[in-house]
Amino acid sequence: MTEDRALTAAQRRVLDEVLGWGQDRPVVAPGLATDLRRTLARSMASGLPPAAAGGSPHRITAAALARTPGTGPPQGHDAATVRGLLLSTAVADDLAGSHEGEVGAVIERAVGELATARSGDPASPSSWWNAAGPAQREAIRDEVATICSDLREVWPPLDPHQVVVTVRPRRSVQVPGRVVLEARPLLVLDSPRRDDRARAVVLVARTGMPRPGEDRLLARITALVETLHAGRPPFRWGVLHVTDGRLEVEEFDADVLLAAAATAGARVGTVLADAPARRRGPGGAGRR
Length: 288
Prior knowledge:
Elements: H1 9-17, H2 32-45, E1 58-61, H3 62-66, H4 79-96, H5 103-116, H6 125-131, H7 134-152, E2 164-167, E3 171-175, E4 179-183, E5 187-190, E6 201-206, H8 212-230, E7 236-241, E8 246-251, H9 254-280
Parallel strand pairs: 1-4, 6-7
Antiparallel strand pairs: 2-5, 3-4, 5-6, 7-8
Helix pairs in contact: 2-9, 4-5, 4-6, 4-7, 5-7, 8-9
C-alpha cells in the first residue's frame, strides 16, 4: 500500500493498526446493503413529518444525523470553523498526494478552493476568508501548514497502484420517504480488487474539540452511506483527529452498521422537522 520509502515508526503503526496492511479482509454476507435499507425504512416509518411525503427530495447529511439532538448546527463562520475547513482540505489533498511537493503549495491550493467556493454567498466560508485581514489569514495559513507538516510524519505515503484514494467524495443515496442521505468523508481508501470481502477504509475528520459520541456516530453513518453507495461495506471506518494526528477506528461489524441505520432512520424525522425553523432563524432571516 505504500511507496518504496523509509517509513517512520508512526507511519508503520498507521499501516498496521489503521490501514491493516497485509491483514485478511472480512467476508461480507450477501444482502447486507438490502438489510440496511430495510432497517432504515422501518426506523424512519413512524417519525417522518407529513410534509416529507411530497415535493423535492429532502437532503440530510450524516453530520446532521450524528449531531446530538437539540444542539443544532453551528451558525455562521469564524476563524475556528474556516481554519477547520482549510485544514481538512489541505490534509486530505496532501495525504492523497503521498506528500508530494512543498507543504506551502498544498496550503495555497486549499486556500484557492476555499476563497472561490460560493464566494457570492455572504454566509459562506469564502466570504469570511476574503473579508478577513491579511494578518489573520496568514496566521491561519501558518497554523495549517504546521499541522500538515506534522501529519506527514504520521501518515504513510500511499502507492496509487495498490490503493484507490478518493479525496472528500460526495456520497449520496436515496432512501424511503423521498429522503437523500449525504456524507462527505475525508478519505476513502479502497482496493482495486472486487470480491466478497470488505476492503475499503473510510475516514471522517475532526478539526475541533473531540466529541466522542458524535464523532463515533458520524463515522458509522458515513460508513453506512458508503455501504449503500458502493454496495459493500468498508472493512474499517473511523475518525482522524487532524490537529494531533490521532486516529480512532472500528472494525467492520454488520451489527454496528445495522444499529447505525436504526439510529439514523429514527433521527431523520427530527432533522426534517427542525430544518424549516433553522432556515428561518431569528426574525425569519436566518440560514441553516
